[in-house]
Structures are given as C-alpha cells and as structure tokens.
Design a protein that fits this description.
By secondary structure, this protein is of the alpha+beta class. It has 2 domains: 2-273, L-amino peptidase D-ALA esterase/amidase, CATH 3.60.70; 281-402, Ubiquitin-like (UB roll) (Roll), CATH 3.10.20. It has helices at 54-64, 84-102, 123-136, 141-150, 203-214, 251-273, 292-304, 306-313, 319-327, 362-369, 396-402; strands at 2-4, 14-19, 31-46, 69-78, 110-116, 159-167, 170-179, 192-197, 232-237, 281-289, 339-344, 347-353, 356-357, 373-379, 385-392. The strands form 2 sheets. Strands 1, 2, 3, 4, 5, 6, 7, 8 and 9 form a 9-stranded mixed beta sheet that branches. A 6-stranded mixed beta sheet has the order 13-12-11-14-10-15. The model has no long low-confidence stretch (mean pLDDT 92).
Length: 407
Amino acid sequence: MKIIKGGVTAAKGFEAASVAAGIKYKDRTDMALIYSKKPCKTAGTFTTNVVKAAPVKWDKNVVENGIKSQAIVVNSGIANACTGEEGYGYCEETAKAAAKELGIEAEGVLIGSTGVIGMQLPIDKLKNGIAKLAVNKNKDIESGTQAAKAIMTTDTAEKEIAVTIEVGGKTVTIGGMAKGSGMIHPNMCTMLSFITTDAVISKKALQSALSEDVSETYNMISVDGDTSTNDTVLLLANGLAKNEKIKYGTKDYEKFAEALHIVNEYLAKKIAGDGEGATALFEVKVVGASDKTQAKTLAKSIVCSNLTKTAIAGHDANWGRILCAMGYSGAQFEPEKVDLFFESKAGKIQIIENGTAIDYSEEKATEILSQSEVTAIADIKEGAETATAWGCDLTHGYIDINADYRS
C-alpha cells in the first residue's frame, strides 16, 4: 500500500469541480462536484440523529436500494436540514439539474449539504452552480483539491488523501475528501466524507468495508458533543481498475479494507484536529482493556470531557479530570490499577501509576502538552484490547466561532 498525492480524482475515471455559487458565502467557492465516467456501486453511512437533513434521506434511499451513481453534488453554507417537504424537493431538483447537465440518470445523483440548519436553499443559485460545475469538471489532482476546499464551512484547511494497493496484478486506487470542524461527536458529526475508488468490488464487500471501519474511525472522534443532522460518508466504486472482483471475506477484501481504513482514519484525524478554535489534536489511547467495548467507551469518555479538553488547551497535566471521565463513562474498571501517560513529539511522561500520582516534572509535562498533537495513554491492565479516540482542545475560539454562526 502506498499513499499518493491527491484526493477524489486520484482513482481512474473520476473528475471533480468547484464553483462560487453564492449559496451563503460571498467570498469563496461553495459548491463541489464529484463525477464518474462510469456508473458506480455505492455504499454509505449516515447520522444517527433522529433529525435527518433532506440530503441524508435522499442519499440513504440511493444507497439502500442499490441504485448506481455517477455524481455527487455538494454545497456548503446551508445544511438543508429541518426544511420540510420543500427542502426534500430541492434534492430532487438538484438531482434533475445535475442529470441534465451531465447526461446521467437523476435517481442516482447523490447530494451533500452542510452549513446553517433551518434555511431553505436558493435553488436557482444551486442550479446555476451545477451548470458551471459540469463545464469545469476535470480529472487532475488540483480539481480534486479545489473541490475539497469548496465543501469547507468553519474548517481551516481542506482534507484529502489517496492510496494505492495491488489486487491481482492491477493497481487499485482509493481517494477521499472530507469536511468537518464543529458539531462533531461520536456516531459521526457535522462531517461529510466522500470516497472514490476504481476497484471492481461487490456491493456487499463495498458496504461492509465501510460500515465496519466507521466504528473505528469517524465514530471515534469528537469536538463538542453535538451529533449533527447531516453526517454522511459515501463510497463510490466504478470498477475501472479492472481487477478481479473483490468479494467479502477474501484476502483481497482484507487488503481493500485496510487501505480504506488508512483513508478514513486520516480524514477522521484531520477533522478532529481542525475542531473549531482548536490548537491541538488530542488523541486518547486506552490499552490493556478486557474487551473492545470497554476500551472504546473509556477512550470516548476521556476525549469528550470538556474539563480534560480545557486542560489540554492550558497545557495542564490535570490527570484527575481524565480519571473522573473514565469513572462516569459507564465502563467498569479498577481505578487502582490505572497507569496514565502523556506523549507528543516533545517526549513521553508517566503521570500516575496504579491510580495515584507519581513524582514527575510539571515543566516536562507542560512541554509535552504544548505540542500541536498530544496523546494520553491510559493502561487499565485488564487484558489485551485497545481503542483510540480523537478530539481536540477546547478554547475560547470555539465560542467566538459559534456565538454568531448564523450571521
């Protein structure tokens, strides 16, 4: 497996485009298109929030009914959530407009929206944007990067990655782009992730690889505890690599799933580290757990603790907050067995042993916690299972961004 330059246009047969349609923003691109020259098998996972945005409902229908797709149309600025029948109707209008401009079937056009909840989309601007996207689409790497930039809201940077693997002597590529910065919480978040591959793969294998990996990647990140109405991960496979078909449970499936995990984990960490107002990616590893559920529950509880997140922002090794978060997580463990470490590029330091503080240098701890990526490692000494969660520090910048987000 090899990481290569690019994103959604890295795989054979995929093109992308971006445009400034004026949906909400006045000074930047705000619409993106991903297009495949050949109809694609689709897989997807979606928000667990009972309140689901119109595009989520539309895309679930496409994925769950096995409808092939050749395009994803995405807008930023307005989420098209809590918009009733009118908002869902705009999904249909968007799909028909894209189908007309691209010469494809409307029923398989996938849609993504992100931004303010409750506002109706300016559909005429959206349609005008689609016409421009269709003309501008290109297979080059830069077009993929610009598409990744166009779906940003409060993100500070685009998020994209591509990898290649060998399957039966053929090169298979997986590329992806994502957005997400706020309203981020386990069980996905205000995040959109779009992944393309040229693999020949069965529908079952495609959906299984995605569904099984989401619990280890996107569902293990948190910024602010809010699970969004718009969470969507879509995976499209057009088969242009011409490899022998990848089937569920085979060695080739395992290889594909591993590569997909690299893509998903990278994008998930980029989202977590780009949390609104954040200055550091906060990684939490729980080791020595008796089972995977216990490890995940503890890791999520620590990474979601606002008190812990503010301590990371202040570069303060306030280990009591971590033990406290573990204690209310709902997972059973023995506090008197816990060892805790902090680690970053500045080094590694042990803070507690068997549930109590040891003699450590506060100065060294502060240096370690002052880096842009910080890891807390909790060893509960009960078994061999591990889990990792990702979040960020919590600063006043989060309030600055969200106090007047609608305006």
